[in-house]
């Protein structure tokens, strides 16, 4: 995934987002609003208590070439793909999911991101704890039928 730092608003490279997404500045503002959510506050508090507090640049708005919401990279932080975000809830979910990954990375002694079993477990855990896999979200995405997963 290519990521580009947010340009200065006055620079000639500052432009609107593509495909209905947000500009990097708009996305960064949405990330800041995410810090008001109880789940984000809870995760930040427990990261701090675990000795893994995060800095101001841990969660960044970036431009992504791939069609993803964002990602967490150990040692680099959480990247939120502003050009693929449309509403606050999408940003909130990406921030929450990334913070869950950060917490797991902080606390798990034998975590190996290159191990497929560890990685799958981390993704399932983050999906469930973040609420991303809630049946209402899946219905809205069109991934679940009324009779269940078929």
UniProtKB/TrEMBL annotation:
GO process terms (BP): mitochondrial protein processing; mitochondrial proton-transporting ATP synthase complex assembly
EC code: 3.4.24.-
A Pfam family assignment: Peptidase_M76
Source organism superkingdom: Eukaryota
A molecular-function term among this protein's GO annotations: metalloendopeptidase activity
Keyword annotations: Hydrolase, Metal-binding, Metalloprotease, Protease
GO annotations of cellular component type: mitochondrion
Enzyme class: hydrolase
InterPro entries found in the cross-reference section: Peptidase_M76_ATP23
Similarity section: Belongs to the peptidase M76 family.
Protein's name according to its UniProt entry: Mitochondrial inner membrane protease ATP23
Organism: Prunus avium (Cherry)
């Amino acid at each position: 995934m290519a990521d580009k730092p947010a340009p200065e608003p006055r620079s000639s490279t500052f432009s609107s987002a593509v495909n209905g997404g947000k500009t990097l500045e708009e996305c960064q503002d949405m990330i800041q609003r995410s810090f008001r959510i109880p789940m984000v506050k809870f995760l930040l508090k427990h990261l701090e208590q675990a000795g893994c507090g995060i800095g101001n640049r841990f969660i960044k708005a970036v431009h992504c070439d791939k069609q993803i919401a964002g990602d967490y990279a150990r040692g680099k932080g959480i990247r939120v793909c502003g050009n693929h975000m449309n509403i606050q809830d999408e940003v909130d979910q990406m921030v929450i999911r990334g913070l869950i990954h950060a917490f797991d990375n902080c606390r798990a002694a034998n975590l190996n991101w290159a191990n497929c079993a560890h990685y799958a477990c981390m993704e399932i855990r983050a999906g469930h704890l973040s609420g991303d896999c809630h049946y209402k979200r899946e219905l809205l995405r069109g991934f679940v039928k009324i009779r269940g997963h078929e």
